[in-house]
Write a structure and sequence with these properties.
Layout: E1 4-7, H1 15-19, E2 24-33, E3 39-46, H2 52-62, E4 64-66, E5 68-70, E6 73-75, E7 77-86, E8 95-97, H3 121-128, H4 144-150, E9 155-159, H5 161-165, H6 170-175, E10 180-184, E11 192-196, E12 199-200, E13 204-208, E14 211-212, E15 232-237, E16 251-256, E17 264-273, E18 277-288, E19 293-304, E20 309-315, E21 321-327, E22 333-347, E23 350-365, E24 381-397, E25 401-418, E26 422-424, E27 430-433, E28 444-464, E29 467-484, E30 500-515, E31 520-538, E32 544-565, E33 568-579, H7 583-587, E34 593-594, E35 602-616, E36 622-642, E37 647-667, E38 673-686, E39 707-718, E40 725-736, E41 739-740, E42 753-754, E43 757-769, E44 774-782, E45 801-809
Length: about 800
C-alpha cells in the first residue's frame, strides 16, 4: 500500500512570481518517506524558479504521511511529489499530485496509487488566498538502486551523490567498498589493479550502462573514469547476471550514468590540487516531452604532473645506495573526451532509441619498470585515441514482453614509443648518452589499431506474476593490426602485421521466480561461451604460421534471496564461471607483451552466502549492515609471466580464494550524523599441483593485500548561513595489513614485505541550494598524516595532498 498524506503545510504563492507576472508554476520533488511517515529528505527534480522551489522544498519536508506498507508492516519508500501553484487571480483551485519521473524506471514494480479525492471547500478557500493544499499522491515502487539491493543478485550498490562533492576519484570510491581492492603504481592515470574477492584485472568485467567500458569511450580503465559523470556503481560479486552478456570470472562492475530524461538540466565540476592536478567535467541534457526527443552531452578534461616526492635509495658518488628524497619527473598524465547522445525516449513504440557517440584521448609518461629496480625512464610514452558509438533500442510489447537491443563499434589507435637516447638518474638528469636508443631495451615505435564490434540482445517474457524468463545473446569481434616503425630488418615482414582476429558469443537463458508474496526470489541461469581465433604466428625465420582455434564452454548458476522482514534478508548464490582470454592477452601489446595464441579460458566455482539488514529505529535513526562469505575456486588462471624486457600471458596456476566481508553503518534522525565501516579478509592461496608454481602450493598469492578495511564519519549542519545551505565534515580512513611482495614460503627473515598502512583523509563541504541551482565547495586533505603508502610492487604512492573542488548543477 502506498503512503497517504495525513498532514500538509499551507503553501504560500511566492511574491517573486507574482511580481514577475507569473500566475502558475510547478515543482517536482523526489521525497523519502520513512516508516514513521515523516519526510526525511526532499530533492528538487524539476525546478519552477520564481521562488517556487524554496516554498516547495520546505513544504515537502513538513509533510507527514501514513507510511507505505507491504505485508502489513511499514516500509521506507521514495516517491515523486509534484506541487502545482496557481495564483488566486488565475483560478481558485489547488492540486497536489505525483507523476512518473527519473527515479522510477518503467520496469519498476508499481504499488497501487492512492485515490485522489475531489478538492474540498477548505482547499478552495485556501487557494483563494494564494495557498494550495494536497488532494492525492501516487507511489511507483522503489528506486532502481534499492530494488537491486533487495534482489537475489550478489550486488553491492554505491550511489555517488556524496562522492561527486568530494575530490576522491572513482578508484578511491571503489576501494572504500568491502571486498574491493584497488592498487596503483603511482598517481592519477597510473597502472591500476582492481581486485574483487581476490580475483583481479581482466577476471573482472567493467561496463558503462551495461556496455563494455572499451565500447563506451573509457579505454584508460575504470579507476580514472570521472566520478561526476556517474550516478551509481553496481558491484557484482562473482555471480554475473546474464543480461550483461559477459564471461567474467570474478564478477563485474557496472557504472551507471543513465537517467530517464526529464526536462533540462546540467552540471559542471572543477578540481585543482597537489602535484599539478586539474580535473573538469561538464554535462547537460534536455528532453522535449511532447516529441520525446532527448539529447545529452558530457565531457571531461584531466591533467596531472604526478611530481610528488619519494623517499628511495639512490647511489651516491661512491656507488653506495643512500636514502634520498627525490621527485617523480616523468609521470605526467593527460586525458580528455566527449560523449554525445541523442534520440527518442518514452514513446509507445520505443522506450529508448538512442545513439551515443564518443571521442577520447589519453597520454601517459612511463617513469620506471614495475619494480623500480633500474634507472628511471625519461622518454618512454604511451598514448591512445578511441572513437565509436553505441546504438540502443528498447521497448515493451503488451506489458509481458520487453526487448533491449544494443550494438556498438569502437576504433582504437595505441602508440607506444621507447626511443630515448639518455641514461637518466632519479633527479631527472641525463647522466650519459646511450650507445643505442631505447630505455627498456631495443628502441620501439609501435602503433596498434583495433576495430571492435559489440552487440547484445535481451528478451524478457513475464509469463506469470511470479515467473519470468530471459534470453541474452552477446556477440563480439576484435580485429587488430600493428606496425613496428623501428624494425631490425626493414625488408622483412613486420611481425605486428600478422592477422589478429578474435570473435565470440556469450549467450544465456534465465528463469526468475518470486514466491510467498515476494519473500523468496530465485534466479536460475545457464550460459554458453564460444570463441573463434583467426591469426598468424610470426616464426623466427621471418615466416608466419597459421593458427586458428575454436573454444566452447558452458556454465550455470543460481541466486537466491529470502526476505525475513522488510529490513532483514539473506542471499546465497553460485556460478560455475568461465572467462575467455581477451585480445590483449592473446595478441600481446606494448611494454612489450608477446602474443600467446594458445591461451585457454579461465574457470572458477564461485559461491556467496550473506545477510543484509536495513533497520529504521523508533527513535528515527537507521542502522544498516551486511556480512558476506565467499569462495572462489579457480583453475587455468592467466598470469603475466616474464620480466621487464619480455613477458607473455600464460595459464600457469590454480588458486582458491576464501574470505569474509562485512559492513555496518548508522544514520541519525535528520541525517546529522552518518557513520560507516567495513572490513575484508581474503585468504587467496595457490593450489597448483603442477607447473611453474607447484613448489609454492599452499602459499598466499604474493603482492595481494589479504586484510583491509575502511571507516568514515560525516557530520552535517543545516542552515548555517542561509535557509537551504549545509556544511558537512567528512573523515575517511583506510587500513591495509602487512603483506608479502613475494611467495611467503620463500626466504627467511629478510623476506620483502609491504608494511601495514593507515591512511586518513578529511573533507569540508559547503552546499548551497538555490531555486534553480545547487553549488558545492569542497576542500580536502588526502593522506592527512603523510603516511608512507605502497600498492604496486612497493612503488611509493603520493603522500599528503590538498585538493579543492567546486560543482554547480541546474
Amino acid at each position: 500500500m502506498p503512503p497517504v498524506v495525513r498532514e500538509a503545510p499551507e503553501l504560500r504563492f511566492p511574491d517573486e512570481a507574482r511580481a514577475a507576472g507569473v500566475l502558475r508554476g510547478s515543482v517536482l520533488l523526489r521525497v523519502t518517506v520513512e516508516t514513521d511517515g515523516r519526510v526525511s529528505s526532499a530533492e528538487i527534480i524539476e525546478p519552477g524558479g520564481y521562488g517556487f522551489d524554496a516554498v516547495a522544498h520546505s513544504a515537502a519536508l513538513a509533510h507527514h504521511f501514513e507510511p507505505a506498507r507491504r505485508g502489513g508492516g511499514p516500509i521506507r519508500v521514495r516517491i515523486l511529489l509534484k506541487l502545482e501553484f496557481l495564483a488566486p487571480e488565475a483560478t481558485a483551485s489547488a492540486t497536489l499530485a505525483a507523476s512518473p519521473g527519473p527515479s522510477t524506471p518503467a520496469a519498476a514494480q508499481s504499488l497501487p496509487a492512492a485515490s485522489a479525492p475531489e478538492p474540498t471547500k477548505p482547499a478552495l478557500e485556501q487557494a483563494a488566498h494564494g495557498v494550495t493544499a494536497p488532494v492525492g499522491v501516487t507511489v511507483l515502487g522503489l528506486s532502481r538502486a534499492d530494488r537491486l539491493r533487495r534482489s537475489a543478485e550478489a550486488v553491492k550498490v554505491i550511489e555517488t551523490e556524496e562522492a561527486k562533492r568530494q575530490t576522491a576519484d572513482l578508484g578511491e570510491v571503489l576501494a572504500r567498498s568491502e571486498g574491493v581492492g584497488v592498487q596503483r603504481s603511482a598517481g592519477l592515470g597510473s597502472n591500476t589493479r582492481v581486485s574483487l574477492n581476490g580475483l583481479t584485472d581482466d577476471q573482472i568485467r567493467f561496463f558503462l550502462d551495461g556496455v563494455p567500458l572499451e565500447f563506451a569511450g573509457y579505454p584508460f580503465g575504470v579507476a580514472n573514469v570521472p566520478v561526476n559523470l556517474i550516478e551509481r556503481v553496481e558491484i557484482y560479486r562473482g555471480v554475473v547476471p546474464i543480461r550483461f552478456g559477459a564471461d567474467a570470472l570474478g564478477g563485474a562492475v557496472n557504472l551507471v550514468s543513465e537517467r530517464d530524461g526529464f526536462g533540462t538540466r546540467g552540471a559542471v565540476s572543477t578540481q585543482v590540487g597537489s602535484f599539478g592536478t586539474y580535473r573538469v567535467t561538464l554535462s547537460g541534457e534536455h528532453l522535449d516531452k511532447p516529441t520525446g526527443w532527448f539529447s545529452r552531452i558530457s565531457a571531461f578534461l584531466d591533467r596531472a604532473k604526478n611530481d610528488y616526492p619519494m623517499n628511495i635509495k639512490v647511489a651516491d658518488d661512491s656507488g653506495q645506495e643512500v636514502p634520498t628524497r627525490v621527485y617523480r619527473f616523468h609521470d605526467a598524465y593527460a586525458a580528455q573526451g566527449v560523449n554525445v547522445e541523442a534520440g527518442v525516449v518514452k514513446k509507445p513504440w520505443a522506450k529508448q532509441l538512442l545513439l551515443r557517440t564518443f571521442l577520447t584521448h589519453y597520454a601517459k609518461e612511463i617513469q620506471h619498470n614495475f619494480l623500480m629496480t633500474f634507472n628511471p625512464y625519461g622518454d618512454v610514452v604511451l598514448d591512445e585515441h578511441a572513437a565509436g558509438g553505441v546504438l540502443r533500442y528498447a521497448r515493451g510489447f503488451g506489458g509481458r514482453v520487453s526487448l533491449d537491443l544494443v550494438a556498438g563499434y569502437a576504433y582504437r589507435i595505441q602508440h607506444y614509443l621507447d626511443a630515448g637516447e639518455c641514461f637518466y638518474n632519479w633527479f631527472g638528469q641525463c647522466q650519459e648518452p646511450r650507445k643505442q636508443p631505447g630505455e627498456r631495451g631495443p628502441a620501439q615505435d609501435q602503433r596498434y589499431t583495433e576495430h571492435g564490434l559489440y552487440g547484445r540482445l535481451n528478451l524478457e517474457w513475464r509469463a506469470h506474476l511470479q515467473h519470468s524468463f530471459r534470453l541474452s545473446v552477446a556477440p563480439t569481434l576484435a580485429a587488430r593490426t600493428g606496425d613496428e616503425r623501428r624494425q631490425a630488418n626493414p625488408d622483412a615482414r613486420d611481425a605486428l602485421s600478422a592477422e589478429r582476429e578474435l570473435s565470440g558469443v556469450v549467450a544465456g537463458v534465465e528463469h526468475k521466480s518470486e514466491l510467498f508474496e515476494q519473500r523468496l526470489e530465485n534466479v536460475l541461469f545457464f550460459k554458453d561461451y564460444l570463441q573463434l581465433l583467426r591469426s598468424e604466428e610470426p616464426l623466427s625465420n621471418a615466416t608466419f604460421r597459421r593458427v586458428d582455434r575454436q573454444t566452447h564452454r558452458v556454465g550455470l548458476g543460481d541466486a537466491l534471496r529470502f526476505r525475513f522482514t522488510d529490513w532483514l534478508y539473506s542471499k546465497a548464490s553460485y556460478e560455475w564461471a568461465t572467462r575467455l582470454p581477451r585480445a590483449d592477452e592473446v595478441f600481446g601489446n606494448a611494454f612489450p607483451v608477446r602474443p600467446n595464441l594458445e591461451l585457454k579460458p579461465e574457470l572458477s566455482h564461485n559461491f556467496n552466502l550473506g545477510m543484509a539488514l536495513n533497520w529504521p529505529t523508533q527513535g528515527g535513526g537507521a542502522w544498516r549492515g551486511e556480512v558476506n562469505g565467499f569462495l572462489r575456486d579457480g583453475s587455468q588462471l592467466i598470469v603475466l609471466v616474464g620480466d621487464d624486457q619480455s613477458s607473455a600471458y600464460q595459464n600457469v596456476y590454480s588458486a582458491r580464494s576464501l574470505g569474509i566481508e562485512a559492513s555496518a553503518g548508522f544514520t541519525s534522525k535528520g541525517n546529522y550524523v552518518e557513520l560507516d565501516t567495513n572490513f575484508t579478509y581474503v585468504d587467496f592461496r595457490n593450489t597448483s599441483s603442477e607447473g611453474a608454481f607447484a613448489a609454492n602450493r599452499g602459499s598466499r598469492i604474493p603482492n595481494r593485500p589479504y586484510l583491509f578495511g575502511n571507516g568514515s564519519a560525516r557530520l552535517r549542519l543545516p542552515e548555517v548561513a542561509a535557509a537551504r545551505d549545509e556544511l558537512s565534515l567528512a573523515w575517511t580512513t583506510r587500513y591495509v595489513h602487512q603483506f608479502f611482495r613475494g611467495w611467503e614460503d620463500l626466504g627467511g627473515s629478510n623476506k620483502l614485505t609491504i608494511d601495514a598502512q593507515l591512511i586518513h583523509s578529511l573533507a569540508l563541504v559547503y552546499l548551497v541550494r538555490g531555486d534553480a541551482t545547487t553549488l558545492t565547495f569542497t576542500g580536502e586533505l588526502q593522506n592527512l598524516t603523510d603516511a608512507a603508502a605502497f600498492d604496486f610492487y612497493g612503488v611509493p604512492r603520493p603522500g599528503r595532498a590538498f585538493y579543492f573542488k567546486a560543482t554547480a548543477s541546474l
